[in-house]
Amino acid sequence: MSIQRYYFRSLGVIFYLACTLAISAQDPPNIVLIFTDDQGWNDVGCYGSEIPTPHIDRLAREGMKFEQCYAASAICTPSRFGLLTGRNPSRSHDQLLSALMFMGDEDLGIRPTETTIAALLREHADYETALIGKWHLGHGQREFLPNNHGFDFFRGHTGGCIDYFTMTYGKIPDWYHNFEHVHQDGYATELITREAVEYLKDKRDSDRPFFLYLPYNAPHFGKGYSPADDAPVNIMQPQAKDLLRVSHIKDKVRREFAAMTVNLDDGIGAILAALDETGLAGNTLVLFITDHGGDPVYGGSNIPLRGRKATLFEGGIRVPALVRWPRKIEAGVTSDQVVSTLDLFPTLSAIAGVSTQVEKLDGIDISPMIFSGKELPHRILFWELGAHAELGRAPWEALRSGDWKYVRDADGQQYLFNLRLDPNERTNVKDQKSRRLTELQGLWNTLAREYHE
Q: Strand pairing of 284-290 and 172-173?
């Protein structure tokens, strides 16, 4: 290595250490993690959507926007498992990949041996922790509810979706305050926002940092009830006032989805306003991430990416993601580095100044990149979707290694893409690059064996 290269590398290391020491020397930040539901790549204004999302877009202007952020899964429950534990969903060993998609089974949920980021922050960094919104990691039995997994406070629902107006799943009540069912009038998205704003106001003078996890159910479809069939039914549930705001969108289902999205965006605006009004904004790290790709059947869009929710093409797993921390993260920056929602656990742990305390984490600490632009190491990301007879889903598998991505779809068809040259997966080069295909297949099989142990 030349003296010049050594000199500049040394400066870089010193700069990173200085940033890290400066962060750890002050009080750890408050954290607000906003996680939206079924909101795809083309459903956020700053990613090119026709749906207006000015408040979400504000986070992009005032912080960092990620162009290559991947969800832990292309469906709800495993995506949430990965986000909160930092572990690949295939490590869960409790059928979370499929079985929690429906209400009614009270014997399934996140295992007590799993450590969530909320539990780690509470137990090792003295954070107050709250979950307001959608849980979807177990229901029914007390042991599966959020208060037994690191959250001091829980207000919201446990299933995959609810009726936005009655807070039920079909006819089953599903609105909780901690361990108890409660009745609350209103519109679900607005109830989540209202509760979150009140929570933030209560923290105005607190001497402890807080972790507020805000998994909105919007703009996921609602779960209504059909008297004719005596069964729950999937239905879009916008409010009339919001439909008027997106009347320029001609397609009915897309318009309904957009109406639910602008209401969600209003809520995020209220959250940001509350942080400003309480004086908490300066030392609050705000993250916005979506749980996986959008579902075109219910109005979502991932254009120009290929695929949709419940597939492992880019449209199923590459998601909008933004992070803001005033004076710590440069405003208006776009990152093209490959990151994953699995990285949240180790990254937030590092920012809070605590060791992860957990074995077999699958994410990495990306704070050096966020704070100083440091290049991340070569990434290998693994996904699988299990079969789900009731939803008519067959298994999928995928792996990204550097610029290369391998996919095996539900029909058994295999694909190989170079995402640097073909980010929208238009050209399958498996025949031209058969050795590369074999290499990535072998790597997928090796990781699958490890994760299934």
A: unpaired
Other C-beta atoms within 10 Å of 193: how many?
26
Options 19, 46, 55, 76, the catalytic residue: 76
How many CB atoms are closer than 10 A to CB 217? Answer: 27
Question: 3-state DSSP call for residue 24?
Answer: helix
Instruction: Give me the amino acid identity at 341.
Output: T
**What b/e sequence results for 164-182 when a residue is b if at least 16 CB atoms lie within 10 Å of its CB, and e otherwise?**
bebbbbbebebbbeeeeee
Alpha helices in 203-313 (DSSP H): 240-245, 252-278
- Is residue 56 within a helix (H) or strand (E), and if so which, with residue range? helix 54-62
The CATH number fitting domain 394-453, selected from 3.40.50.2300, 1.10.260.40, 1.10.10.10, 3.30.1120.10: 3.30.1120.10
136 assigned to active site: yes
Annotated catalytic, 388? no
In the set 55, 69, 136, 161, the catalytic residue is 136
| 128 strand-pairing partners | 210
Return the CATH fold of 29-379. Alkaline Phosphatase, subunit A (3.40.720)
Two structure tokens written together for 161: 């979706």
Instruction: Write the pLDDT tens digit of every residue in 156-169.
Output: 999 999 999 999 99
pTM over the 0.70 mark: yes
* Tens-place pLDDT, residues 70-126: 999 999 999 999 999 999 999 986 445 444 444 445 567 888 889 999 999 999 999
DSSP H helices, 113-239, are 117-125, 188-202
Q: Which two tokens stand for residue 94?
A: 């409790």
